[in-house]
Amino acid sequence: MNNPIKNDEQQIRDLVATWMAATREGDVATVLSLMTDDVVFLVAGRDPFGKDVFEAQLGTDDKGRRPRIEGRSDIQEIHVAGDVAYMRTRLHVDMTPAGSTQTTRRAGHTLTILRKTQGRWQIARDANLLVSVDN
Question: Which end of the chain has the least Cβ crowding within 10 Å, N or C?
């Protein structure tokens, strides 16, 4: 018998895998499709921001270069309740700004709220507690 909760958990794991691959490949359109239109990101030291600011961060510089982002997300917990779910992860991100050779490494925990809309999971809220780690 098919367990819908397990199926939802797998879909969320697949979303994370797609997010990480699309980010690594610079596929901004795919990353944006994984978020709700009203997504809110919470990052220490900054005001909350939405999809437009997130998109700008992934955008190109004046020479058409994109930042290089490599990451690893270790999912530690997923809980599904109907069309809403939350996920707790340990995230590691290495980011090199466009046109730079200086890589910043950050790691920490995240708490993400997902919403299922028209049969597909998307990120609705994301709070991360990433801090700089030694290079």
Answer: N
Q: For the chain, how many structural domains are there in total?
A: 1
What's the confidence (pLDDT) of residue 1?
A: 54
Give the H/E segment covering residue 15.
helix 4-25
Find the CATH number of the domain harbouring 64. 3.10.450.50
What integer pLDDT is reported at residue 12 of this predicted model?
A: 98
pLDDT > 90 in the chain, percent? 81
Residues of the domain holding 114:
4-132
Is 70 exceeded by the pLDDT of residue 11? yes
Does residue 29 sit in helix, strand or coil? helix
What does the alpha-carbon distance between residue 39 and residue 130 come to, in Å, rounded to a whole number? Answer: 19
Tokens in use for 100? Answer: 């730079």
Which residues are registered as beta bridge partners of 127?
42, 111
Confidence class for position 127, pLDDT limits 50, 70, 90:
very high
